[in-house]
Amino acid sequence: MFKITRADSIANFGAQPQGFVAPDLDVISHYCRIEAFAADLATGVFHLGPAARYHHDLPDQGEFGLYNLVKCYDAEYRNHVLELYEVAAMRPSSFCFSTTIVHQDGGQIPVMCIGESANFSDDGSGAINGVFVFPKFRLLDNTPSNAQ
Q1: Cβ distance 142 to 133 under 8 Å?
Q2: CATH superfamily to which 2-7+26-135 belongs
Q3: How would you class 101 by CB atoms within 10 Å of its CB: exposed for 0-12, middle for 13-18, buried for 19 or more?
Q4: 3-state SS of the chain: helix, strand, coil percent to 5?
Q5: Residue 129, SS3?
Q6: What is the helix (H) or strand (E) element at residue 54, kind and residue range?
Q7: Tens of pLDDT along the chain (148 residues)?
């Protein structure tokens, strides 16, 4: 799933219906970890929390850019994710995607990202803010090691 839209086209979409009850955060945290992220468009630097750094195989300290973030994504979908971020960096947008992070040991973890870009100015500054959602399970590499 790879979706992007102009930010102003969904202005009233997030309005909560009457009688809406917010989900129990304890229940949500049983199934997944949700962590915020931010990117500074003037510098290209992403700021992630510890769970996102861990799952993306990034060091605990230091700055990094978009390529460092997406290089662990499934190669089949990596370019789609790059395109979403590039569009979001050019105009106010809301976006979401889901893909799989592939670790060096063959393990995989699904990831979902929901974000938006805003605060654009003539000097090239702006920001992308959003959340990563990581389920609390890993997918095992089920490819046969010795086909018979």
Answers
A1: no
A2: PAS domain (3.30.450.20)
A3: buried
A4: 25, 35, 40
A5: strand
A6: helix 50-55
A7: 556 676 555 455 555 667 777 777 788 888 889 999 999 999 999 999 999 999 999 999 989 999 999 999 999 999 999 999 999 998 899 999 999 999 888 889 999 999 999 988 877 789 999 999 999 876 665 544 444 3
pTM: 0.79
DSSP 24: P
Q: Give me the phi and psi of 91, to 5 degrees please.
A: -155, 155
Region of residue 86 (left: phi > 0; alpha: psi -120 to 50; beta: else): alpha
Other Cβ atoms within 10 Å of 46 Cβ, number: 21
Beta carbons of 63 and 17 less than 8 angstroms apart: no
